[in-house]
Amino acid sequence: MVEYHRWYWTSYGHALANNLRSLREMRGLSQTRLAQLSGLSRNLISNLERNESGAKAADPVLSTVYKLAQILYVPPGVLLPGVDEVIAGPCAATTPHLQGRWPVAEHDTAPFSPLYLARAVTDELPEFAAPEPLGTAEITLPKRSPGERRRKR
């Protein structure tokens, strides 16, 4: 039996934090707007993006992941790091992706349209800004260590 190491979760939580932040910024959403659209608190989203929950790493419930995925219009597995790998050590994922399955369409990496961002309607398909042709869009993720904090603006 493989011994579970609690420090593994910190690395997966950090990768989840980077995925959430990158996808939120890619869609052009602020933490406040994502909170409004998802029905979650801005504080929860901030904690997830910093991988913090009190003195421990963030550990969201499954419904939270699905709410965020729905609003960001991505498969839930794109938020979750390492979903296509056996957990045998710390998370090595550095970018949000699903092996061979995402992104698959031009709008997968496009920001939401300003009109869609301004409306508070979440029960319809999102509208996207003009996307770059598939294969040319790049997502560059800032590499942060698990304890590093984002600069206040």
TrEMBL record:
Query: InterPro entries attached here?
Result: Cro/C1-type_HTH, Lambda_DNA-bd_dom_sf
Q: Which residues form the HTH cro/C1-type domain?
A: 20-79
Q: Coiled coil: which residue ranges?
A: none
Q: Which PROSITE patterns match?
A: HTH_CROC1 (PS50943)
Top-level taxon of origin: Bacteria
One example GO MF annotation:
DNA binding
Location of region: Disordered = 129-153
The entry's protein name is Helix-turn-helix transcriptional regulator
Q: What is the lineage of its organism?
A: Bacteria, Bacillati, Actinomycetota, Actinomycetes, Mycobacteriales
